[in-house]
Amino acid sequence: MISRMKNPKTTLPLAAILILLIGLLGWKAREVHGLAGQVTTLEKEMASLQLSAASRGVKTEDLGTLSVASLLEDLTQLGRRHLIEMTSIQPGEPQTKEGRIEQAIRLETEGKYRDIGEYLAELEVFQKPVKVTSLKMEVSSSGRGLISASLDLMLYRKGSP
Hints:
Blueprint: H1 11-55, H2 68-81, E1 85-91, E2 95-97, E3 100-111, H3 113-124, E4 130-139, E5 147-158
Antiparallel strand pairs: 1-3, 2-3, 3-5, 4-5
């Protein structure tokens, strides 16, 4: 049963407030729905990265079988996925320390600043025993508005060279 309000002057402001509240709730619902969609997309991307990392992962007992050539191929493929051009790859001499082999590798790369940042972020969670030991970035002399990055990496393996 609908009853009439005793003061008609309050009807219009109350109706306006109600309409504004409904509109605000609808807007917030769309915003939350959009964020939920982004979370779902990010979760899918994360699952994909985890599967990719697991497929190229190396267990500690397999360190002795890890080859520099396969690592360099993985680093190059990773660079390609992030639109990074490898301008030079220079493996150093392997050295045995405390029962493991340390293999220095220098990468000279060129790409957009953001792409290099994403490449470094993925190197941070790289599933192979690689550590970035040095990084130098500067504007590329190519004149294409790119960044040159020099990375010194260390690859760790078991055994003797």
